TrEMBL record:
Domain Cyclic nucleotide-binding: 11-43
Short name of one Pfam family: cNMP_binding
Gene3D superfamilies: Jelly Rolls
Native organism: Neobacillus piezotolerans
Protein name: Crp/Fnr family transcriptional regulator
Amino acid sequence: MKSILMKYIAEFTSLSDEQRQEIYGRIETRNYKKGAYLLRQGDMPKIKCYFVLKGCVRQYLIDETGKEVTTNFYIEEQAIPIFTEGNQDVPSKYSLTCLEDSLFVVGDPAVEKEMFTSYSQLETLVRKMMEANLREAQDEFAEFMHSSPEERYKAILRNRPQLIDRVTQHQLASFLGMTPESLSRIKKRMKTDK
């Protein structure tokens, strides 16, 4: 797991090996079991960010009709930012739950601030990672908005194929904006078209 962290620090900074080792020693990692919640809808967020070293996390919300709506999945080497719009007293609009046993780097705001002061390049690293995540999310959203359900499924197969075997069909269908039955029909049609 250390190699994943060191890869990002080396890629986005020019810190020495000694500095990278010191940073690594100060970073908090936590294990969570399958089914554990990182955050529940309606709770006040206590953590600013997670970075997935191992595992799969589902982001979802319960809408006004009581229906579960999957809004994202996070897997290895992805950051899970928790934005509170500058106000820590805003309850979360979604839940984050582990779909597998998982290991995360945990972003503690106080430690992060101290490390940014000691190593200004870390702030640049985090900014670049967040920019990349935002760009990816914007691209996915734009593609999603003008795609048919079948095109959305094909995009998942192309861009995030690892999700197919790691999430349930009803969670994937919800994420793609369709019913599980529609997803089954699309899969069946694609198999027969081959």
